[in-house]
User: What shape does this take?
Amino acid sequence: MTESETFETIRYTADVVVLTPGGDVLLIERDWPPFEGHWACAGGHVDPGETSREAAARELGEETGVHVAAGDLRQIGVFDQPGRDPRGRYVTVAYLAIVPADTPVTAGDDARTARWWPLNALPDRLAFDHADILSAVTAPTL
Assistant: This one.
């Protein structure tokens, strides 16, 4: 085997599940492929020099206008299933943020729209493996 056959490029990302105490979740409608027009948690690439937690807080602010301190994010888990992203191998660290129910949102950056959804009535078209990420958030974490 050659080196290119034994090593694959892995991209590092961070995602944020934002919930209200009443159980609404903040999702963005993606404005670009892959999964253009599908709903997703806020998130994106970890930039050089930042942690995944810092990237999660940054991406949340850029995509939804919701600002939380990186230290207030709680890790949900790591999602690294091969094939979770059609662009290649992506590994994401997902975080949870709890915000007040009246927190305003503004779609920005890569989002076509940002809105609150009842956690028990999510849209049918979720991007990537975000249904799995949302499923990892259970009632005891609220």
About this structure: Residues 31 and 112 are 5 Å apart (CA to CA). The radius of gyration is 15 Å. Residues 3-141 form a domain with the Nucleoside Triphosphate Pyrophosphohydrolase fold (CATH 3.90.79.10).
